[in-house]
Design brief:
Strand content: 15-25%
Number of helices: 20
Number of domains: 2
CATH topology of the largest domain: pyruvate-formate lyase- activating enzyme
Number of strands: 18
Distance between the termini: 43 Å
Structural class: alpha/beta
Radius of gyration: 23 Å
Mean pLDDT: 92
CATH superfamily of the largest domain: tm_1862 like domain
Length: about 500
């Protein structure tokens, strides 16, 4: 009787953060139930085709988890190889994109089953049915093809994540990830979901507005055990909004501090929640090892924030967040979404002015400007269709949704070129201000003069004859985007984001 489950993680943009948490989480219940699980992560596998071909020879099934965008292309390519080599084994797709569009995913003709939503219990039951030679019809939380017909089984009720076993971190080859990234680190999720309903966010589609969190004691025990056992330097928390329960966040920080272990940890949150914390509480985060926080500030225009359904986001709290984190010695990245439907040129200028001022006062703040991307399932799709956005009709089209290369009908040609020039000047201005702090006396004076010219450009909205950009590019001084999760440099220029 076949008892082996092979799970594959396609390549993604950016350096690897550690073994794929989604697959470690799915693997854990399978292993407890007696299955042999093999995880293949393309980030550390030089020849994934050969590895996959070898591993599926005696496999019960083959599973892939992926997000919208280029990951789909590789998921399809490898899955087609599996179909050729082992036409008899079921191919199972899971993750955010298949969950949101299960029928369209199955219509591609590659996957036999889609696991929707929380995959831990659904994947376990699917594997048990397959091992027993039974149909997966009736298994809650999955969709399947039967005689070319798509069948959607009922949803699986959302499970309290405290009921799930610890992800199978022991399966991660931390030495291999260190060789690729230069760091011994891991991703960890102490919670899923966010109580807010920002209408550009796929998190709302996937989790609703439910905040589902591990107990404090579990987080402290699991993270400190991981750090100690695997000699980890950094833990990147994948929580959608870590500070939803600020008392819990403080207790976790206190637990890490009391453990005596020295490690960095990072997370994402919203500025309104950090502003609920006292200065001492924010400093506690810093003392416990928090080295970076990412905030979805998105815009400094109240009108745009209302369009985004971000009623909880206030401009003064952006400044206050910057002030408190500076005092605590924590680096910060503010995310910006530009080109949102209904945003005007005046709104964008207002955002740039506010963020430039934040950068001037608080040089520890970095920025990640992104162009709005219409991801599947988000609540504003009816408006997007009215505005002329064409929704991709199949997996292949969704795979072409490369961040930064998706045109918006209301932001094309000259308006788009102006926006890109504005962002280039903004990023150069913030980076020049930051570098001036550590320059020599002469270098500081030169940079200060350049900053004056750059700030005038942004305030006057004048971007013709961009000599400053030519000079900066000549010296390779153009600022780069940073990860909202870790603050790591990703790439130069502006990209699209959900």
């Amino acid at each position: 009787m076949k008892n082996k489950v092979v799970l594959y993680y396609p390549p993604y943009d950016g350096p690897p953060l550690g073994p794929p948490l989604c697959l470690l989480s799915v693997a854990s219940p399978l292993i407890q139930a007696g299955f042999h699980v093999r995880i293949i992560d393309s980030a550390i596998t030089d020849e994934p085709e050969g590895t996959v071909a070898s591993e599926i020879r005696d496999a019960l099934c083959f599973g892939v988890s992926f997000l919208t965008g280029p990951m789909i292309k590789e998921a399809l390519r490898i899955s087609k190889l599996v179909r050729i080599l082992r036409p008899d084994i079921p191919i199972i797709f899971g993750g955010w994109h298949p969950t949101i569009l299960p029928a369209q995913t199955l219509a591609a003709g590659i996957a036999d089953i889609v696991v929707r939503g929380q995959g831990e219990l659904t994947m376990l039951e699917v594997a048990q049915r397959l091992r027993e030679g039974k149909s997966v019809e009736g298994v809650r939380g999955c969709s399947l093809k039967k005689h070319k017909e798509v069948i959607h089984n009922p949803d699986r009720p959302v499970e309290n994540i405290n009921h799930f076993p610890t992800p199978a971190f022991f399966m991660g080859d931390f030495d291999a990830y260190e060789r690729r990234s230069g760091l011994r680190k891991v991703t960890y999720a102490s919670s899923v979901g966010c109580p807010y309903a920002c209408n550009y966010c796929t998190d709302l589609v996937y989790y609703g507005q439910r905040f589902n969190a591990y107990k404090t004691e579990r987080v402290v025990y699991e993270v400190t055990t991981l750090v100690s056992r695997w000699r980890l330097q950094e833990v990147a928390f994948l929580d959608s909004n870590f500070l939803v329960d600020v008392k819990r966040a403080g207790a976790i920080a206190r637990g890490f501090l009391d453990s005596g272990l020295k490690f960095r940890w990072t997370f994402q949150a919203s500025t309104n929640l950090l502003c609920r914390m006292s200065e001492d509480e924010v400093c506690l985060l810093g003392m416990s090892g928090v080295s970076h926080m990412g905030f979805g500030t998105e815009s400094a225009s109240p009108q745009v924030l209302m369009l985004m359904n971000k009623k909880h986001q206030r401009i003064d709290e952006m400044f206050e967040t910057a002030r408190k984190t500076q005092r605590a010695g924590i680096r910060v990245t503010f995310n910006l979404i530009l080109g949102f439907p209904g945003e005007t040129d005046s709104d964008r200028r207002q955002t740039m002015q506010v963020m430039t001022e934040i950068s001037r006062r608080y040089p520890h703040v970095s920025f990640s400007p992104n162009l709005f991307t219409p991801y599947p399932g988000i609540s504003i799709w009816p408006e997007l269709r009215k505005r002329g956005v064409r929704e991709p009709q199949d997996l292949e089209e969704w795979s072409e949704m490369v961040l930064g290369n998706n045109p918006l009908p209301w932001l094309a040609n000259r308006p788009f070129q102006k926006l890109m020039r504005m962002v280039d000047y903004f990023m150069l201005c913030t980076e020049t201000q930051r570098r001036a702090l550590n320059a020599t006396w002469l270098g500081r004076r030169i940079r200060q003069m350049l900053v004056t010219a750059l700030r005038w450009r942004l305030k006057a909205d004048q971007y013709t004859f961009p000599w400053e950009l030519w000079l900066a590019r000549g010296f390779e001084q153009v600022a780069a985007r940073r990860s909202l999760l870790t603050g790591q440099v990703l790439r130069r220029g502006m990209q699209q984001v959900c």
